[in-house]
Each structure stands twice: as structure tokens, then as C-alpha cells.
Amino acid sequence: MRIVLLGAPGSGKGTQAQRLQAEHGFTQLSTGDLLRSAVAQRTALGLEAKAAMDAGALVSNQIVLGMIGERLAEPDTAAGYVLDGFPRNLEQARALEAMLAELGQALDAVVLMRVDFEILMKRLTGRRTCSKTGKVLNVYFSSKAELDECIAAGGELLQRDDDNEETIGRRLKVYDSETAPLVDHYRDAGLLRVVEARGSVEEVYARFLAALGINVQ
Ligand code: AP5
After folding, report:
1. What's the CA-to-centroid distance between 46 and ligand 1, angstroms?
2. Atom in ligand 1 nearest the alpha carbon of residue 68
């Protein structure tokens, strides 16, 4: 399957995409992760992207489209993929349609993770990433066992630079003005499926699989 995950920052796109990849083999393609990796490697592209990311703004379409175009051509996308955080505006959505047409592919579903604002704030300020395993955790919602597992493996619980209240506020505004219009775009295309993303990771995952029509044994 080829899936787009839509949803506000903190709605759980990365968490659900990681799990779907681990259990069902669809490759997670996260533009946020690709950009953070370019920033960490201090590539020219990463340095250019960093200012926008720190400000909670979108990185230029030119950079993001170049990156995703290269990534879609890699062999691990053949068994299906989940686009996590892309597209993020109408220009990116139209460019994706053109890229897929060229590859002879089509999207199977666009899943919107819907969740209230207050929940988003708590999820984002509490988010930590394990430096060892890359697992996304949360100081408010993950179990002590999960957090301890990272430390025991020799990892650190890292907080993202853009997970401070000021930048989170800007990211949420950008989502409303630039990305939310994609909901109507994909509803009109007959691809939209809505998942209520409140509740535990497990509960949301069960709804996510059901929305994709994936049966759990
Ligand atoms: P990106 O990395 O895509 O960030 P985002 O869209 O803001 O989304 P997040 O990663 O913050 O949230 P998520 O929905 O994945 O939530 P998660 O699963 O981690 O983008 C970062 C920046 O890069 C952008 O601001 C922009 O500058 C740039 N960028 C990226 N893509 C771009 C593009 N296409 N075009 C232009 N610029 C682009 O969960 C959050 C927390 O909640 C975690 O701690 C998790 O453990 C916890 N959690 C998740 N689900 C639950 C649950 N059900 N119950 C309890 N806790 C939960």
C-alpha cells in the first residue's frame, strides 16, 4: 500500500508509521527525519533547512521535493510506504501526484490523524527520542519500563530543538494555514480516511489498521 499520513504536529504520525513499518513492512518516509538527518550531517541542504525548522516554518518546496523524489526511487519503497509529514501544502500534493504518475504508482489512502489541541501540546512538550534506538517516547505517556529500556541500552532521551512551546505554537499555526487544506483536497479525491487519534498508542494503532482495512489476527 502507498499511504499518506496527515495530521497536526504531535498527532502521532511518526509513532504510528514506525509501528506500521515494524509490523507490516511499509517503509516510513518522513520528511522531518530526512531533514533532521541533513541538519545533523551539516550538509548545505541541512544548513538551509535548519533556519526554517527552528522557526517552525515550512522548508522550501524545492528542497523537500528534491529529497522525496530521490527517496521514492530507492528500492525499499517497492513493498509500499507511508509518507509521514509529506505533502504539507497543495503545491507539494500536486508535485507528488506528478511524481507518482511518472513512476506508474497511485496512492491507496490518505489517513488524517485527528486530535484535540490540548493533547497535542502535552505530547509535543513531553516527546523524547532515544539516541540509541531512535524510538519516539514521551515522558508523560511512555511507561517507565520503556524509558528505562533506552537508558539501559546506553541511550539518552533527547528533546527536539523545535519542541519548545513557542515553536510548537508556530508549527500548529502553519499546519492550520498550509496543511489543513489538504484534507478537503484528498476528500475530494476520494482517498481520505479519518482516525480519531486520542487515547493510547495501542488504541490509535488499532483504529489506524482498521482504517487501512488491515486485519489483525
Ligand atoms: P516533522 O518532523 O514532520 O514534525 P511535525 O509534523 O511537526 O510532526 P511531529 O513529528 O511533531 O509529530 P507526529 O505527528 O509525528 O507525532 P509523534 O508520533 O512524534 O517536521 C518538522 C519540521 O520539518 C517542520 O516544522 C518543517 O520545518 C520541516 N518539514 C518536515 N516536512 C516538511 C515538508 N513536507 N515540507 C516543508 N517542511 C517540512 O508523537 C508526538 C509525541 O506524542 C511522542 O512523544 C509520542 O510518543 C507521543 N504519542 C504519540 N501518540 C500517542 C498516543 N496515542 N498517546 C500518548 N502519547 C502519544
Report:
1. 18
2. 34
